[in-house]
Amino acid sequence: MDTSSFLKKIDSLQSHTDENIFVIAHRGGYKNDWELKTPENSLKNVEKAIDLNYDMIEMDVCRSIDGHFVLMHDSKLDKRTSGSGHTYEKTWTEMSTFKLNYSNGVESELFMTSFVEVLKLIKDRMLIKLHRKFPIEFLPDFFQLIDDYNVKDHILFWEDWEPGEKEHIEREALFASNPNFRTFNYLMTVKNVIDLAPIFDSCHIVAIELPFLDIKDEVISKDNIQEIKNRGVRLSANVQNKPDRVAGLNDGISLENPAQGWGKILDFGFSMIQTDYPELLRKYIISRNTL
């Protein structure tokens, strides 16, 4: 993708009226990492996503004991690397020697990846949905890193909206300490919708995820969906099988009958969809639009 096309994608992400569907590759599209020899959490996996022209990739970021940010689904190193222990117990020098495992558990020849390497690679090339797996007290350092590499508009922070919870209180205090922190792009997962206004007032909301266990749940009522759209904010759905956040309209049923899964999600008005099968979902959207 050339730079001008990528900049149009950034504009589309922020658009208040654009109906383009953003397909988000869960964990970089890790399901086929063995076949493509691109293990999850590797720089090669990000390069694959760029080559395949994914709209956006979801990734998790942890932190080392000496302040380096690294790609890793969670802090536990045993399952996904040749190392052991937790990311927050290790220095980056130690972790940089750990080899990554494929999703099937086989050890690869690639080593753990520093998030700085990702920032260098994605400039004008890839959007990131970022799941923070480190304490909120280190967010200012992380924000500064993103600013240093001039990719602020490339990153969408995925956070939970849970008033009263410790993380929520700490985040609000952090925003109050530096209003600039509110200007980063956020996708908020909202489990209990009572009043949406405080969410929109809290920071720069690009998208809202509304998990639902039943298609008749109040959380995805027409009024809620319309209010979100009226605010110029995208509706995001997370359709991987586990945990099920979309009343069974997930990847599992969609692999058998896309219209009964992904199709119904699109019919609700969701315009950001995180999936384990980004290429198949993209093909379905194209075929659906040509009908």
What does this structure look like?
With 291 residues, the chain is an alpha/beta fold. The chain has one domain (3-12, 22-289): Phosphatidylinositol (PI) phosphodiesterase (TIM Barrel), CATH 3.20.20. It has 12 helices and 11 strands. It has an 8-stranded parallel β-barrel. Helix 3 packs parallel to helix 5.
Key words describing this protein structure:
alpha/beta, TIM Barrel, two-stranded antiparallel ribbon, 12 helices, 34% helix, 20% strand
Termini Cα gap: 27 Å
> What strand order characterises the main sheet?
1-2-6-7-8-9-10-11
State the shape: globular
Order of helices and strands: HEHHEEHEEHEHEHEHEHEHHEH
Rg computed from alpha carbons, rounded to a whole number of angstroms: 19 Å
Any idea what the CATH superfamily is called? Phosphatidylinositol (PI) phosphodiesterase
The tally of domains stands at 1
Helical proportion, percent range: 25-40%
Helix-strand makeup class: alpha/beta
Assigned CATH architecture: Alpha-Beta Barrel
Total E-strand runs:
11
